[in-house]
Amino acid sequence: MKPAVLVTKRIYPEAIEYLKAHAEVDYVNSDDGLPADELLARISGKQAVVSQLTDKFTPTVLDQLDGVRVIANVAVGFDNIDVAAATRHKILVTNTPDVLTDTTADFAFALLMAAARRVVEGHHFVHSGQWTKWRIDLLVGQDVHHRTLGIFGMGRIGQAVARRGRGFEMRILYHDAMRAPEAVERETGAELVSAERLLSESDFVSLHVPLLPETRHMIGAEQLRRMKPTAILVNTSRGPVVDEAALATALAEHVIAGAGIDVFENEPRVHPGLLKLDNVVLAPHIASASVDTRRKMSMMAVENAVAALEGRRPANLLNAELWAGDGRV
Length: 329
Ligand code: GLV
Known about the structure:
The chain is α/β, with parallel strands linked by helices. It folds into two domains: 4-99 and 291-328, Rossmann fold (3-Layer(aba) Sandwich), CATH 3.40.50; 101-282, Rossmann fold. Helices cover 36% and strands 15% of the residues. The strands form three sheets. A seven-stranded parallel sheet has the order 8-7-6-9-10-11-12, sandwiched between helices. It has a five-stranded parallel sheet with strand order 2-1-3-4-5. Helix 12 (272-275) links the parallel strand 11 (258-261) and strand 12. Glyoxylic acid binds next to loops.
């Protein structure tokens, strides 16, 4: 008998076809997401779940999963799943790293450029018919080239952002609990500094940390005050890394010059203060949203799920302690 898999939300069709060749598929072919009680009911009798970042697997939810062997998240971030609790229940958890690294870094840079050079304000200015004459200081913004780029979190995506910064001949600072490999520091010229130095010396601060208890509200009023008044904050990591209310106040009071924000504390809701401002570029959590990358993420997740169901080690296993030698613990 084929194993049973729940796909909680719409993914790319080829991923569903692949799954169907290996499993009985219960496909929620919708973008709405299931409420917690419905999610639990639909998981009942399944051995695998292909989930998305809007599906919350708290310890309480995980306590109630019977017979689930793997949760394959279609995202690199996995703060929606309590991996420690999943490990206690011997449920494998996988994510989709690497395939989205460059795509996400491209978008972080797009937000950085858009906020620095006021691209969205320019678009609205032209679109609304306000452009009547050339003016020496019309929509003047901040230079990007040769400025200082500060990166919090020098993992895969942080490094890819550093490479882009290098292309713009920027000086790169980074802050991370772990030092980046020497080859990365050499290639990008990135220098490991304290959080305080990064905040006070950078013209652009880009966030690439995972959401953890210690990174929640890592950027709040105090950190924003340490930044230059000309500086721009970019967040493509997770919304709660930034205190959104504090950011709205800092932008309104010109404590910093601008921001490019793709992720929010209570998605899809955005702090109303941010919606009133011209000096922030807002995007609906789309940093990894290129056609190729979202397809690859869908395929990677279902391949992880099928590997686990077939007793093979999933390529992107997060709780590696559940695997020893060539089998599950
Ligand atoms: C998207 O936010 C992801 O974590 O892949």
